[in-house]
Automatic annotation (TrEMBL):
Substrates-to-products reaction catalysed: tRNA(Trp) + L-tryptophan + ATP = L-tryptophyl-tRNA(Trp) + AMP + diphosphate + H(+)
Entries under Pfam families matching the protein: tRNA-synt_1b
Protein name, as recorded: tryptophan--tRNA ligase
Localisation per UniProt entry: Mitochondrion
Top-level taxon: Eukaryota
Swiss-Prot/TrEMBL GO biological process terms: mitochondrial tryptophanyl-tRNA aminoacylation
Alphabetized SUPFAM superfamilies for the sequence: Nucleotidylyl transferase
EC number(s) given by UniProt: 6.1.1.2
Family: Belongs to the class-I aminoacyl-tRNA synthetase family.
A cellular component term, taken from the record's GO annotations: mitochondrial matrix
Keyword list, A-Z: Aminoacyl-tRNA synthetase, ATP-binding, Ligase, Nucleotide-binding, Protein biosynthesis
Molecular functions per Gene Ontology: ATP binding; tryptophan-tRNA ligase activity
InterPro entries cross-referenced by the UniProt entry: aa-tRNA-synth_I_CS, aa-tRNA-synth_Ic, Rossmann-like_a/b/a_fold, Trp-tRNA-ligase, Trp-tRNA-ligase_bac-type, Trp-tRNA_synthetase
C-alpha cells in the first residue's frame, strides 16, 4: 500500500468543494487498502483569529462530518493535528531550510492580504507546517483540491532540500488531484471564484449537511447567465457548468449524460431538478451526521485512538530527523 496523508481545517461546515475535491477521494483510497492518515488541521486554523468555543466545536463537528462521509477509523488513521507534538517540531526544522522571501511569494498569502490587514507570522509558516504534516508520515500521495498545489510544491522542495543536506530521508510527496472537473468547484454566487468556507455569503456554497430547503434555495439562487440552455462550457458559461459538475460528480453520471438528459430544459427548471437529485444523494449523509454529532464520547474516543496511532509513526520520523540534524541522541 501507498502512504497517503491529507488534512482539512476544522473551521466552518464541510461543503461540496471539500467533499468532491478531496474527502470523497480520501474515502476511496482508504477503502482500496492504502495506508492513509487524515488530519484535522487545528493548528492551521489558528493562523487566523478563531473563537475558542467555535473552534472546539468545529473539531468535533469535522470529526463527525468525516465519519458521516465514510471515513472509517478502522481503515485509516483519523487524528487531530495538535495532539501530535511532532508537527510543530518538524515545522521548525523545515522553516530553517527556507527563506522569508520564498514564503512571502505564496499566492495564498497574497489573497489573504486583501482580506486581513495584519498577517500573522504563522500565516507565513502555514505551508511549512503543511509540509511537516506530510513529511512526518513520509507520505507519497496527498489527495487535495487544485488550490493546494502551491503548498504541495513547497513540501516537495523542502523534502529535496532536507535530503540533500542531511541524507535521504523523505520521499517526494505528490499531489493527487481529481482528474474530473470537480477539482475546483466554484462559488454559487460568483462562478469566477472558488467555493470556500470563508466566503461571507452562505448562499455561495452548499454544505454537505444542509437541509433540503436550503439546498433547493441555494441552487435556485445560483448565479448563471442569461442563456437558458443547459450546457457544459466552463470557459464561456462557468455558472451553469459548475451546477452540471456538482450534479454529475454527486450522482456519478458523466457530464455528457447529464447534458443529454436535459436537452430542451430551461436553466430555471434544471436548477430545481438537479437540486432535488442532490438532496436525495446527500440525505443519508446528513442523517448519519445528525446521529454522530450526538455521540461526543464516541467522537472523543476516535480522536484519542487516532492520535496514538499517528504519534507512533511521527515519533519514528522525528527521532531520525533529530539525529540527522545533530540535536538527537545517537543511539
Ligand atoms: P481546506 O480545509 O481549505 O480544504 C480541505 C480540502 O478541500 C479542498 N477544497 C476544494 N476542492 C475543490 N473545490 C473547492 N472549491 C475546494 N475548496 C476546498 C482543498 O483543496 C483541500 O484538499 N491547507 C489545507 C489543509 C491541510 C492539508 C495538510 C492538506 C493541512 N495539512 C496536509 C494536505 C496535506 C486546507 O486548508 O484545506
Amino acid at each position: 500500500p501507498r502512504r497517503i496523508l491529507s488534512g482539512i481545517q476544522p473551521t466552518g461546515s464541510l461543503h461540496l468543494g471539500n467533499f468532491l475535491g478531496a474527502v470523497q477521494k480520501w474515502v476511496e483510497l482508504q477503502n482500496s487498502g492504502e495506508d492513509a492518515f487524515y488530519s484535522i488541521a487545528d493548528l492551521h486554523a489558528i493562523t487566523v483569529p478563531q473563537d475558542p468555543k467555535v473552534l472546539q466545536n468545529g473539531i468535533f463537528e469535522m470529526t463527525a462530518s468525516l465519519l458521516a462521509c465514510g471515513i472509517d477509523p478502522e481503515k485509516c488513521v483519523l487524528f487531530q493535528q495538535s495532539k501530535v507534538q511532532y508537527h510543530t517540531q518538524l515545522c521548525w526544522v523545515l522553516a530553517s531550510l527556507t527563506t522569508m522571501a520564498k514564503l512571502g511569494q505564496q499566492a495564498q498569502l497574497r489573497e489573504k492580504r486583501n482580506i486581513i490587514q495584519e498577517l500573522s507570522t504563522a500565516l507565513y509558516l502555514y505551508p511549512v507546517l503543511q509540509a511537516a504534516d506530510i513529511l512526518l508520515y513520509k507520505a507519497t500521495l496527498v489527495p487535495v483540491g487544485e488550490d493546494q498545489i502551491s503548498h504541495l510544491n513547497l513540501a516537495s522542495f523542502l523534502a529535496k532540500t532536507f535530503n540533500k543536506r542531511f541524507g535521504n530521508t523523505f520521499p517526494e510527496p505528490q499531489a493527487f488531484i481529481n482528474e474530473d472537473s470537480s477539482r475546483r468547484l466554484k462559488s454559487l454566487r460568483n462562478p469566477l471564484s472558488k467555493m470556500s468556507k470563508s466566503d461571507k455569503d452562505p448562499r455561495s456554497r452548499i454544505n454537505l449537511f444542509d437541509s433540503p430547503e436550503d439546498i433547493l434555495l441555494k441552487c435556485k439562487k445560483a448565479v448563471t447567465d442569461s442563456i437558458s440552455a443547459v450546457e457544459y462550457e466552463p470557459e464561456k458559461r462557468p455558472g451553469i457548468s459548475n451546477l452540471v459538475v456538482i450534479h454529475s460528480s454527486l450522482t456519478g453520471r458523466p457530464i455528457d449524460t447529464i447534458c443529454q438528459e436535459v436537452v430542451g430544459m430551461q436553466s430555471g427548471d434544471y436548477k430545481i431538478a438537479m437540486a432535488n437529485e442532490i438532496i436525495e444523494v446527500l440525505r443519508p449523509l446528513r442523517e448519519r451526521f445528525n446521529q454522530l454529532i450526538n455521540e461526543p464520547a464516541y467522537l472523543e474516543n476516535v480522536l484519542k485512538v487516532g492520535a496514538l496511532r499517528a504519534e507512533a509513526q511521527a515519533q519514528e520520523t522525528w527521532q531520525d530527523v533529530s539525529r540527522k540534524i545533530g540535536i538527537g541522541r545517537n543511539q
